[in-house]
């Protein structure tokens, strides 16, 4: 597995976790607000549930910076995997939904939503690898700074 020593090649892992935790808190809180207007209730409830779980995991990640326990990082890693699955299913659903309705001249593919979800997937994957590196560092014998 890939291990990262510095987040964005600038920040030590410890401070990178603070940055990741704060950025993810803001993004997840925004997602909950944006998904409120969606037409399909199941998508709203799923994205809200995943976002709330991810917010809790981000708070635990921030706590792991002050109290270096690798058990506090595990919820973020699990929530990240769940988020990957939900994002992937969301992209697939939007493409299939858009293609099906485009045939009947009903509604075009939601290109902007697909692009945002793919970018979110890529950023989330990088953040997940950074947090995994933090998890390995907390479990190892190297000093934390």
Report on this model:
The protein has four helices and two strands; from the N terminus they run E-E-H-H-H-H. The chain has 145 residues and is mostly helical. It has one domain.
Top keywords for this entry?
single chain; mainly alpha; 2 strands
Structure summarized in a few sentences:
With 145 residues, this protein is an all-alpha fold. It is 74% helix and 3% strand. It is elongated.
* Physical arrangement of strands within the biggest beta sheet: 1-2
Q: What would the average pLDDT be, to the nearest integer? A: 82
Topology, number of strands: 2
User: What is the H-and-E element order?
Assistant: EEHHHH
Shape: elongated
Percent strand equals under 5%
Protein name: MARVEL domain-containing protein
Keywords: Membrane, Transmembrane, Transmembrane helix
């Amino acid at each position: 597995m890939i291990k990262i020593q510095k987040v964005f090649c600038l920040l030590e892992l410890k401070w990178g976790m603070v940055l990741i935790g704060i950025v993810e808190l803001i993004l997840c809180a925004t997602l909950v607000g944006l998904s409120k207007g969606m037409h399909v209730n199941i998508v709203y409830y799923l994205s809200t549930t995943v976002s709330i779980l991810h917010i809790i995991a981000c708070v635990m990640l921030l706590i792991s910076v002050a109290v270096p326990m690798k058990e506090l990082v595990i919820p973020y890693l699990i929530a990240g995997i769940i988020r990957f699955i939900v994002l992937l299913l969301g992209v697939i659903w939007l493409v299939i939904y858009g293609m099906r309705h485009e045939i009947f001249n009903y509604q075009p593919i939601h290109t902007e939503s697909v692009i945002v979800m793919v970018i979110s997937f890529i950023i989330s994957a990088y953040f997940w690898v950074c947090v995994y590196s933090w998890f390995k560092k907390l479990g190892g014998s190297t000093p934390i700074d």
